[in-house]
Structures are given as structure tokens and as C-alpha cells.
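To fix ideas, we reproduce below a protein record of this kind.
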Amino acid sequence: MADKIYRYWIAVPSGLEAVALDELREYAPEVQQVDVEPGGRVGQIFFTYKRSPGRLLQLRSAMQCAGLIVQMHGVTVGRPGLEYICKRIARCDLTPVKSLAQVQSTAIDTHAFALSATLRGRYRFSAAELTAAVAAVLRDKHGLRPGKGPHLLRLHLQLTGRRALLGLRLGEGIGPNAAVAYCLARLVAMQPEACVLWARRDPCELAALQEAFGPRLLVGIPAHLIAALDHLPFVGEHLDYAFSLAGENPAAELAELARVLRSGGIAVVQVADFDHFIALLEAEDYPLEVLADLEMHERGRAYRLVVLERLAEEDAGLLQVEQWS
């Protein structure tokens, strides 16, 4: 094993991996050997990085960042697969792991650990059985003791199909809603001092937007408590950006977006029934143009993100048509 850990991975909002990768390259332009793995619930980006991981902890699109300790392929679904994982971890040199942990803080106790595990697939052993078996290896083969709290080795074992990853969690991570909010705003290159409507589920997303982008006006409509998407409390052509979930009356909602967005304004609509939504756009004469659409998973459901631009409209009263003889 190398004397240091240079391979990392971050967990990012599903469907917004390209946005997260753009931020990663901005904060850590030295990243190499990048491998993007789109996910159902969570996307992942693997990369090699030989500088201090401190920059990685500044990423607002990463829900979690981890240093890769060992990667195992060919894991079978039964007890032999579980035994194979334990044998590989027993042979690991944890010296680089302890060194990476103390880069974050010298207060970390490198003789104590907390272990979590996720299984993505069907196996003939549970996450609890996997955790117990690996914890025994860490205790008996590596002399570590189980502990609690933030100041220890926070290890995570991820099993997906026939691949297993053991990683060291870095930093505290951020909530999924905050990561989604940041990625959506970055997707449209939100400008500071903008006027923004945020009509999505979680009000904590508003705090993430305010901190990262500093809009001049930020109005949130969580759960449609103070207004409805088909009757917004704004004068016309006032908003620079609008972010929403398509509701029960998408035709009226589209009409309201066209009314309140200024010319050149951008709307990002999260749509469950994409075909119906596009059919409405094509059937009605909304001054809205589709710039892009992306697949997205949130809370276990599949959506499409439709990015719309508010088009400028000509005022017929400004035109003068003369007859020439």
C-alpha cells in the first residue's frame, strides 16, 4: 500500500454529477483519473488528488467525501464474499489511514473507530452482519477499539454488486437538500444580487442558497403555505430565477412562470410526468424555451429537471407597417 492515500470519492446528488464535477475541478484543478458513476439515489465521483484534502472539504455539492482505503472486486453474494472482504481488510496497512485522519485534526484518536456499511444489491448477509465481521477484523488484526463521537477513524464500507469499498470519511458532510440546492443554482450559473423564487420541499435549502449565492431577493414557498404555483404573489417580469416542483396544474404554473420571469430569466422545474409537461409546452403559446432537461433522482423517485428560458416578446404596438405603392 502507498505511504499516503491519494484516491478519494465524493457522494453527490443523483443526476447532477456534471455540476458537482465542475465544482470539483474549480476547487481542486489538480484532480486526475476522474471516474463519474451516476447513481439511482446518489451519484459518485472517484478521483486521484495528491494535495491536501482540505480543499475537498469546501465542496458544497458533495454530501460526503472519503479517502479510499481499499477497493475489492469479485465479491460474491454469499458467506465466501463476506469472508473475502474480511481477509482483504485484515491485510491492509492502516498507517496512511491514520495519517490522513490527523491531517484533518490532531485531536482524532487514531486507535478508535466507528464503522458504517451500505449494501446496494441482494446478498446472503445483512449490513449488520458485515459491520460486525469487519469490526472484529479491525479490533483483532489492527488493534483498534470501537468508539463514538467525531474524533476517531470514521470508516465506511460500501458494497455495490461485486465491488466493495472501504473508505475514511472526511469532514462532517452536508445534507442532501443543501447539496441539491447548491447544484441547481450552479446549474443555471446563478448571479449574485438576483431575485429568486424557491418553491421546493425543504426550507433548509433556502439557507444554503443564501450562504452560497447571496441573492438580493429570495422568496421560499415551502409546501405552498403562503401561495400556490399557479397564483404567485409577484408583479410581472420581476424574477431572475425560479425553481419549482411541477404540481397538479402545470398549465397554470407555466403561465405564471412566463408572467413573473423577466426576459432572459430562467426556471428549473422538477417534473414527474415529463411527456405530459412537454406536451403542454408544445400545445400552448408560452414564451418559454427548453434549454436542457436532465434526469434526477430524489427521495427514491425518478424525475426530470426541465430548464426553461423566458423569451422576449415583441410589442405589436411598437411596430409600424406602411403601405408602399
